[in-house]
Specification:
With 158 residues, this protein is mainly α.
Length: 158
Amino acid sequence: MTFSRREFLSEVEEIKQWQETLNRSNDVHERRTLVEDIVGKILLACWRGVKSEIVQVLRKVVDRYVNNEAVGHTQWGRTDRLSKIGGVFWQAIHHIPEDLNPLRRIMDDALHRVSKHQLLLSERDKLAALSNEDRHTLKRKRETSVSAEPSSPVKVQR
């Protein structure tokens, strides 16, 4: 993974545009989705930068360790030890504490270019395209489906 200055600057510009839209908006739902999109983009940019730095340092360390005969052991032995250490790093990277899962989801959305704000606007456009009668029918269906769901009887075993 290499750092792309062009990609980074493009993301910064996108964040600025979202921030301007956020500053103009008074709608609570729109502001919430914009904040989530902005946070996801910032987290992703930070993660890419940190990961790029770590990978560069690790490459140097691994190269020096594997190819330095002064370290002792054979090159194969040194490689084997590094593989085991790498396994520990791999497990640590993939362990995400429960309280960080929402942040990971927001970052993953940014990675896959899923914009909560665009989803909200799209949903609003769909609702605006419906006629009043269609909206009333849709609302009635939602209300009846919730109230018509039978409650399942609870069986007590003795």
